[in-house]
Write a structure and sequence with these properties.
The chain is α+β, with helices and mostly antiparallel strands. Helix content is 40%, strand content 15%. Strands 1, 2, 3, 4, 5, 6 and 7 form a 7-stranded mixed sheet that branches. A hairpin with a 5-residue loop joins β1 and β2. The protein binds iron/sulfur cluster. The site of iron/sulfur cluster has 14 residues, from α9 and α12.
Length: 338
């Protein structure tokens, strides 16, 4: 028994009484747990739930996902943002199919080798699927550990992560790692919340050093946020009615696939020019927030009788736009237009 074992009983009792029923908690299928963890990396549970159901219905196992195209996976991902996650998931499915014959790996190191799987995700899959004794530190767990131990080490640096990782390893219930990780995560999500947690109702208040030392509100300590970069994007939406081979009227527009590695790599959008100053003539405008960027986007509609020749664009029927993995900003503009 380690020195943290005194928290196990009250923590587990609280978890049994308060845990949310979530489909990825009801399974020990490593593939489904992997899908849920990738979706939840930067997505709230409520929104993630919908996408998770969609993904496991369309791709019930890793082999089905590996056989799909990247575009199909991206289309299903549409609206979740941070598309690198979807791309890595697709790459991961192919790697599992090729390297392990479609059988999900069973050791921490092999799981960690899957693209897009970091220390946290590998720990989560290893413990949730196989009950292996690895900690899984997400934002909620960092907060609970910092407070329980009254630890003011900056947690989101390489050194800080190492520090908290060894703290978590020491506190882990090696007999029930799956239960311990699930319970501590849920405590962080529901009880030990970032602002004004109700410590008087917390099952761990008698063991919590931050509560005893009145340090709850200042923990955990994170490094200062990077400065947000502003960018001005000017989009042109061409609308060109034409008659197709069947004699039907079809409206065509132009799309281009982003090849720049900065944002929305490989996704499709209307032709665009980036400027340093805001556009003088604003029509359909949005401010769109990404992690460290604030995008100011202007969409202008141009009815034309023939589509202009813009390099790297393709003509697409307006009704076929759904067949392309569009950036979230482009989707917002389309919704507003419709
Ligand atoms: S007592 Fe308060 S700060 Fe400590 S673990 Fe519980 S909710 Fe978090």
């Amino acid at each position: 028994m380690n020195s943290a074992s005194k928290i196990y009983d009250p923590l587990y009792r609280w978890f049994e009484a308060n845990k949310r029923v979530l489909p990825w908690r009801e399974t020990s299928d490593p593939y489904k747990i992997w899908v849920s963890e990738i979706i939840l990396q930067q997505t709230r549970v409520q929104q993630g739930l919908e996408y998770y159901m969609r993904f496991v219905e369309r791709f019930p196992d890793v082999a089905t996902m590996a056989r799909a195209t990247e575009d199909e996976v991206l289309r299903l991902w549409q609206g979740l943002g941070y598309y690198t996650r979807a791309r890595n998931m697709y790459k991961g499915a192919q790697m599992i199919a090729e390297r392990w014959g479609g059988v999900f790996p069973t050791t921490f190191d092999d799981i960690r080798a899957i693209p897009g799987v970091g220390e946290y995700t590998a720990g989560a899959i290893a413990s949730f699927a196989y009950d292996l004794p690895y900690p899984a530190l997400d934002g909620n767990v960092y907060r609970v550990l910092a407070r329980l131990n009254d630890c003011d080490v900056v947690f989101d640096t390489t050194a800080g992560k190492k520090h908290f990782h060894s703290l978590a390893q020491r506190m882990l219930d090696e007999v029930h790692p799956r239960l311990f990780n699930s319970a501590i995560m849920e405590l962080g999500a529901l009880q030990c919340v970032p602002r004004e947690p109700d410590c008087t109702a917390c099952p761990l208040r008698h063991y919590c050093l931050a509560y005893a030392h009145h340090m709850v509100e200042v923990l955990p300590v994170r490094k200062p946020r990077p400065v947000v970069q502003d960018r001005e994007l000017n989009y042109a939406i061409y609308l060109c009615p034409q008659t197709n081979e069947q004699g039907q009227k079809v409206v065509y527009t132009l799309l281009r696939q982003r090849t720049e590695k900065d944002i929305w790599h490989h996704l499709w959008e209307f032709p665009q020019q980036e400027t340093s100053a805001p556009s003088a003539q604003r029509e359909l405008t949005f401010t769109h927030l990404l992690s460290h960027r604030r995008l100011h986007a202007t969409f202008r509609v141009y009815p034309v009788t023939s589509l202009p020749a813009i390099p790297d664009t393709i003509a697409v029927a307006w009704t076929a736009l759904d067949d392309y993995a569009l950036s979230r900003l482009t989707l917002r503009a389309l919704q507003a237009l419709q």
